[in-house]
Design goal:
One of its GO terms (cellular component) is membrane. The chain is mainly beta. The chain is 13% helix and 47% strand.
């Protein structure tokens, strides 16, 4: 069954590629379902912007790891952006409501690593995800409040989202392994203040609910309570986007989490700190390089106290494929000695290398083959290095 799903997904993607190559009319649409007979632009003009994305990843572990395996995961992300200024006359106010459904299984257990090779796996149910309001005060200040995840605004960049691996896709992975914040599609209560004094400088301060049940997907995103064991994570981030003539961005941030965390050695810790820094720049036309580092001194709580990632993203590498992306990623995760003691292993590190190419079939559809090489899965030295082949299909309706 798993083999059939894997082959079916790749054949479907190939058929789609053939169709869109042969049909210029289809090729020009921003949405697979087009404009709904002119209803979509009318809704947008009135302040209602619906959206629906479908993503799937088909992967096969072909070498190393614990065993060979194939799996398929899928995800629906749908919702609506509301311009409350157009709808109700509330100046500079917007609202977002979204839903996520995840289905399928990952081959992560067959690889045996700490990073999942199939990034859209996790909590395979339906969720109410975002439910928040954002208010802008002129051009410099903005406040966001409601149900959301910290990676909407912190410790993340669009460059990370081209990876099929959780080692880099999403917010900095080390923050999730130690449970200091949540990420898509796990919503918590939170808020963020943003100050943008100039085009080059931006400051953000946020506070988000955190707790032992923050990854509990069985409530389908409908548990709005604040439990007695919950605490808060306070995040601060500074962004610098200098006007160099090339797209350049640097951000540095810190996460301060206040709640009881279980120590690997026993007992609890009531405070956890992590710092991070990211830099990216366009080093040639279409070619962007980036690097990120994150560190926590709290080895008794942080599973990966040190994470370093780097990558390249080349838009339009091949003639006639100006919208395609060729990507390379590398991530190093240093595992905590205390974590190793807790599981009775002498742990060291895990590394993930990934090479992929995103074929932008139309503005609303892409297919991205990828190969991942996972070095020292699990960090123990007991599992052979693994090779995972995958393909990511993304559709916008």
């Amino acid at each position: 069954m798993k083999n059939e799903l894997f082959v079916t997904a790749l054949v479907t993607a190939g058929a789609l590629a053939s169709q869109v190559s042969a049909d210029d009319g289809f090729n020009s649409g921003d949405y697979l379902t087009r404009d709904w007979g002119d209803l979509r632009p009318q809704l947008i003009e009135s302040g209602i912007t619906p959206f629906l994305y479908y993503d799937s990843i088909s992967s096969a572990s072909v070498s190393g790891g614990l065993r060979s395996d194939q799996d398929y995961v899928g995800q629906v992300y749908a919702g609506v952006d509301l311009d409350l200024e157009k709808i109700f006359g509330w100046d500079g106010t917007t609202m977002k409501v979204s839903y996520v459904n995840r289905h399928g299984n990952s081959l992560s257990d067959s690889v045996g690593g700490i990073y999942d090779p199939m990034t859209i796996y996790g909590g395979q149910v339906s969720y109410l995800y975002q439910l928040y309001i954002e208010k802008e005060f002129g051009d410099q200040w903005a406040i966001k409040l409601g149900r959301l995840s910290a990676d909407n605004d912190f410790a993340d960049t669009g460059l990370y989202r081209y990876s099929l691996s959780t080692s880099i896709n999403g917010p900095i992975r080390a923050t999730l392994l130690e449970n200091s914040i949540t990420s898509f599609p796990y919503a918590v209560w939170g808020g963020r203040i943003k100050y943008t004094p100039t085009d080059e400088h931006q400051f953000q301060l946020g506070a988000y609910q955190t707790g032992p049940d923050q990854w509990d997907f069985t409530n389908n995103g409908l548990d709005f309570s604040f439990g007695s064991d919950d605490g808060i994570s306070v995040l601060a981030q500074y962004d610098w986007t200098p006007n160099t003539g090339r797209n350049t961005r640097v951000f540095v941030g810190a996460i301060n989490s206040f709640r009881d965390f279980d120590n690997f050695s026993g007992g609890t810790t009531d405070y956890l700190f992590r710092a991070y820094i990211h830099g990216e720049t366009e080093i040639a036309d279409g070619l962007t390089a980036f690097a990120m580092a994150s560190y926590s001194p709290d080895d008794d709580v942080a599973k990966t106290p040190l994470q370093i990632s780097a990558g390249l993203n080349y838009k339009g590498l091949f003639p006639g494929r100006e919208e395609d992306r060729t990507v390379f990623f590398a991530t190093y995760g240093q595992l905590s000695d205390e974590y190793g003691d807790a599981i009775g292993e002498d742990v060291d590190y895990e590394m993930v290398f990934e090479l992929g190419h995103r074929f932008q079939l139309t503005p609303s559809a892409y297919i991205q083959p990828s190969v991942q090489y996972i070095q020292n899965p699990g960090g123990t030295g007991d599992i052979d290095d693994a090779v995972v082949l995958g393909a990511w299909l993304g559709l916008r309706f």
